[in-house]
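re: ur question from yesterday

yeah so i grabbed the chain u mentioned. its 613 aa long if i counted rite. heres the sequnce exactly as i have it in my notes:
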Amino acid sequence: MGFIFTMEHKYKLDAERPKPEVTTWAIDFETYFDSEVSVRKLGNKAYFNHPGFDAYLVTGHSSDGETFCGHPKDFEWGKLTGCRVVSHNASFDENLYLWGRDTQGWESCDYLEWCCTADMCVFFGLPRNLGGASATLYNLEMDKSVRDRMKGKTFESLDKEQQDEFLRYAEEDARICLYLWLDLSPSWPEHEKEISNLNREICRRGIAIDTDALKDNLGALQLKLFEAENSIPWNGEAALLSRKAFNEECRKQKIEPPASLAQDNPLAIEFSKKYRKEFPWITSVQEWRRINALLQKLQAFDRAVLPDGRYYGGILYFGAHTGRFSGSGGNLNLQNLPRGELFGVTMRNLIKADDGKKLVVVDLSQIEVRTLCWLAGDTEMLKEIAEAEDIYETFAVRFKRWETGDKPLKEANPGLRHAVKQTVLGCGYQASGARYAAMENIALDAGEEAVKTYRSCMPKVVGLWRRYKGDLAIAADIGENFEISLPSGRSLRYGRVKRMKDNTFKDGKNHFKYFVKIVQQGRQSNVSLFGGKLAENASQALARDVFCDTMLRVEKSGWGTIMHVHDEVVVEVEEDKAEEALRDITEIMSTPPSWIPDLPLAAEGKILDCYEK
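ran it thru and got these structure tokens back, copy pasting raw so excuse formatting
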């Protein structure tokens, strides 16, 4: 696989580096920001178009030794023609250059490609932020407080000493970005770089928003929030969600407050059923937070939709340790939009096809079930899946809960099919009977029976859990870094494993817990591992690699994705091309990658006027 970073693996900043074949420029912008003029709040394009926005500094550092630090309008952008450009957060810097070229008269240039060193770093298990990556790789602590102190300030407002300090800070950022690229990029797989670049291109295309419906939903939801607030007795006297005020009001009404107000807590649910009719404010308290959270999502859409009627959000490459994408930008997570109608708002329906166009939405079917069976080496199950019209009917037969007859299971007994589906999805990663029962809100004995059925009928998956646990224990014993190799050519890296004795077992045997430090949401976190958890990670990672391969093939076939969510692509096409696009994309996504030809894939899709899944 090439480069594998370890905590002992340090690079030297002053080391001589071979000159790349293509001249490479590291580009880093500095821009005005405050509480309202904020890329985190607005997303890239809305931030650039805010009246208070100002791009006052760009720093460029090239592999030929040339450096520039000054106003973007003064930089000779033509120097980048034919060069590779890199930035630490290229989704910001490249988009800012393109905006400046199109609206501010910055010189046009034809760069070879613009790559993201932040994406590259997180691929190798390094922190996403530049300071964390430089500290880990180079043992260099970067002072980011210089940038933090610029909140609400312009460059011109600084005195000479402060300006010089800020210029040194900017120059160091660009220099470290270039060194990261030169040191790590030779080991970054080409197709992963393509995925990173394509993901940013997808985000640049934007998604059309039904702005009329958005305005209507905002008004209706603001009214619901107002009504909820005004029905809470302590409104104006204490915080609306104050537990102390809630308890005092309960006792004032001579009712005993529940120990928890969590939405899914059984005591809270029972309390609400018992008293909400007599005391409507109980429902208002429970719903206020959810209404407010939904309102904030709508407001994020509203703030960031541009005059062209499109929203340009962000999707983060390698947002999870497994390589899965995550939401990013504009205070709105496109990877986790609310499903269905909530307080009269169906948020997904706000995403629409532009005039004269259709949305073609296609996703991989049951991909993690398939990747789990492949990793477990269950060739018999994979063969049954490949031949099945309904994968869950196949599992029902294997579980001895159904015999194939004249009618398919989904017609003859949809309740049984749902139960089997939940067992397949819920038990594949070593959930206990109690855990599964809690997940499905069923009786403990029913949960234990489901787990028993799965494990007895899926011995290869159980064997996968054991194998991963054994490999983990060996890595802890010999002090080696633990990793799981994937058929795509990359590895899930966990680093050094720490082992602790587990005293929860009372059988007189030695049991252990295993912990690692991995990067989650751009930061290193302590994570507990066991066989089933590793199977889940590997299954999700493989599913991600398969999906990315299909996404690249969809793009190369000429269909431009405007959004992707988990295992699903959303393509916007001319209305008369929709049927062709659906057939073509479904076929592409039903064809396994060349590096895993024995994985049976299936895909299904729809032609829509507005997004709905």
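noticed a couple things. The radius of gyration is 27 Å. also Residues 218 and 299 are 7 Å apart (CA to CA).
anyway ttyl
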